[in-house]
From TrEMBL:
InterPro entries: ABC_AA/LPS_Transport, ABC_transporter-like_ATP-bd, ABC_transptr_urea_ATP-bd_UrtD, BCA_ABC_TP_C, P-loop_NTPase. Keywords: ATP-binding, Nucleotide-binding, Transport. GO terms for cellular component: plasma membrane. The keyword Transport applies. Pfam families: ABC_tran (PF00005), BCA_ABC_TP_C (PF12399). CDD domains: ABC_Mj1267_LivG_branched (cd03219). This is Urea transport system ATP-binding protein. Residues 32-274 form the ABC transporter domain. NCBIfam families: urea_trans_UrtD. Gene3D superfamilies: P-loop containing nucleotide triphosphate hydrolases (3.40.50.300). One of its GO terms (molecular function) is ATP binding.
Amino acid sequence: MSLLRSLADRDRVFDFLVPAASPVDVRHGPILYLEDVTVSFDGFKAIDGLDLTIDDGELRCIIGPNGAGKTTMMDIITGKTRPDTGKVWFGSRHDLLAMNEPEIASLGIGRKFQKPTVFEALSVFENLELAMAADKRILPTLMACLTGEVRDRIDEVLATIGLAGLRHRPAGILSHGQKQWLEIGMLLMQRPRLLLVDEPVAGMTEQEMERTAELLTGLAGAGKQSVVVVEHDMGFVRSIARQVTVLHQGSVLAEGSMDRISHDPKVIEVYLGAEEAA
Ligand SMILES: Nc1ncnc2c1ncn2[C@@H]1O[C@H](COP(=O)(O)OP(=O)(O)O)[C@@H](O)[C@H]1O
Ligand SMILES: [Mg+2]
């Protein structure tokens, strides 16, 4: 009965099948804007007067030593942590500080955590299919009425993440790198406008890192996704970086091209120096 009712309610069952026009308004400026954001944990300022501007379609790398506030920054953008002060805007229309986590996600902000969380017993295809369903309880319904549109989207994403040949294999047999790509694919199913990716290449082979660099640089672009990558591996950052932001003690220490950053004495002192000495 309740299944019938949910089928009868077209909006609830089918709205995810039609890509909604993204509500984000970037006509008058950046896709993401943080101004003077501060958050304290027990009196300790993990984020301290942070300003950050990400343009539509940009690929931005965020680096910085452990404890610099990188993960906390992502927590603030996604609504997991509330800052004490500051502004956080998505386009010019959405004040993210007035929204909760699910509302922010539904605006088109996708977050990839470090550890892959794919469903190992399901096939690659089914993982992508599942990612499309806003309400996971309707999966059986979904399976029964996969539209051409959803199939096309899955094919598109499979090609993007390079797993088309493995579509019918269980996700459990994938390598660590392939699982990371699948999880990025699961985020892409929802057609996000902004992707936040935390340390994507940790534990990957050289070859997987190269493929990931291609994937992330290919995703970014105006009208497609903007991508923010937090990463420790400097070789990897060098291979994909356009604009780099260096965080230190909760605020921006330096910002610019990788070349400029790697010659900045302040950056060398707090980060690159330590990296090269390690
Ligand atoms: N929930 C929390 N409670 C207390 N301290 C926290 C919490 N989250 C982060 N911190 C502290 O805030 C600082 C920044 O942490 P984090 O954002 O994880 O840094 P990064 O990701 O750059 O390594 C660290 O000193 C960390 O110990
Ligand atoms: Mg972190």
